[in-house]
């Protein structure tokens, strides 16, 4: 009996609905009602979910901005022998939120970490996209700074597997334009919004078609973008990096021939060659004036 009492509690990572409240599992509802404490990304949001299932477990706030101070407190709770459930606002904790940090801390302290599986926006969008599901990479939200975003997209440009992105509605058109510039207008994609909700929608087609659609119909709701990889059937085929032209004028022309706009092609050439965009632009002007 004493040995059991000295054991740490269990850290449960519980999925929560991404829209429809009916998408909780029986086991998750049962565990949420049984544990002593639930750590939530937004307690106000989670309180609505608990009320829906008549769950009265205590809530505490655990999010990106307090994870380094709150994490150790939650570890003490677990080490005292009490179980804990971590939830995000929607979907699986640890995917684009701080749940993974607490899981790492728990593992370092030999605390059992176990999942309560359920809804996930990225995988839900993928299986309904009509694109290849055998290999895929979750990218999540792209960096907000133009430089870092460009670097990430350049690294992803020739990946062969399907790519999964998250995006907010007010950034969607800008992101789609950057994807067009980086991957070419004909790369196939699907944009999923409001998954499992009343106004769930999938828009499928080329990147250019998606951009046109959301230019004419302002985007609403949170989005998952599913993008075809550069494998067989993709518009932009993978060339070996060492085979790319080393001349900035020729490299810019190479990217433009693949369907990239001139401004974006200049930027890609600069990144590839380790030059400034101004250097590439000056080289183009010099070549045009010959």
What topology emerges from the helices and strands here?
Elements: H1 2-5, E1 11-14, H2 26-34, E2 37-40, H3 43-52, E3 58-61, H4 67-79, E4 84-87, H5 99-108, E5 113-116, H6 121-127, E6 136-140, H7 146-156, E7 162-167, H8 169-183, E8 188-193, E9 201-206, H9 207-216, E10 223-227, H10 248-257, H11 262-273, H12 277-288
Parallel strand pairs: 1-4, 1-5, 2-3, 2-4, 6-7
Antiparallel strand pairs: 7-10, 8-9, 8-10
What attributes does this structure have?
290 residues; Cobalt-precorrin-4 Transmethylase, domain 1; 17% strand; 10 strands; elongated; 3 domains; 12 helices; five-stranded parallel β-sheet; five-stranded mixed β-sheet; Methyltransferase, Cobalt-precorrin-4 Transmethylase, Domain 2; 42% helix; alpha/beta
């Amino acid at each position: 009996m004493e040995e059991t009492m000295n054991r740490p509690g269990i850290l449960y990572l519980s999925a929560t609905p991404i829209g429809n409240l009916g998408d909780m599992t029986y086991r998750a509802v049962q565990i949420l009602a049984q544990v002593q404490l639930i750590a939530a990304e937004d307690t106000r949001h989670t309180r609505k979910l608990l009320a829906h299932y008549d769950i009265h477990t205590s809530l505490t706030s655990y999010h990106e901005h307090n994870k380094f101070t709150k994490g150790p407190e939650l570890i003490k709770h677990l080490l005292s022998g009490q179980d804990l459930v971590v939830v995000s606002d929607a979907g699986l904790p640890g995917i684009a939120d701080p749940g993974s940090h607490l899981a790492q801390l728990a593992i370092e302290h030999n605390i059992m970490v176990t999942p309560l599986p359920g809804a996930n926006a990225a995988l839900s969008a993928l299986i309904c996209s009509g694109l290849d599901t055998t290999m895929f990479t979750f990218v999540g939200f792209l960096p907000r700074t133009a430089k870092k975003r460009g670097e990430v997209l350049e690294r992803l440009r020739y990946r062969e597997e399907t790519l999964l992105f998250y995006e907010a509605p007010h950034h969607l058109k800008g992101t789609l334009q950057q994807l067009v510039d980086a991957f070419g207008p004909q790369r196939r994609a699907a944009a999923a919004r409001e998954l499992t909700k009343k106004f769930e929608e999938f828009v499928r087609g080329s990147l250019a078609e998606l951009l046109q659609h959301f230019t004419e119909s302002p985007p609403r709701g949170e989005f998952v973008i599913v993008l075809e990889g550069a494998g067989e059937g993709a518009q932009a085929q993978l060339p070996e990096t060492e085979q790319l032209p080393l001349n900035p004028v020729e490299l810019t022309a190479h990217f433009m021939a693949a369907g990239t706009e001139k401004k974006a092609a200049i930027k890609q050439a600069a990144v590839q060659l380790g030059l400034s965009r101004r250097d590439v632009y000056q080289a183009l002007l010099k070549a045009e004036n010959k």
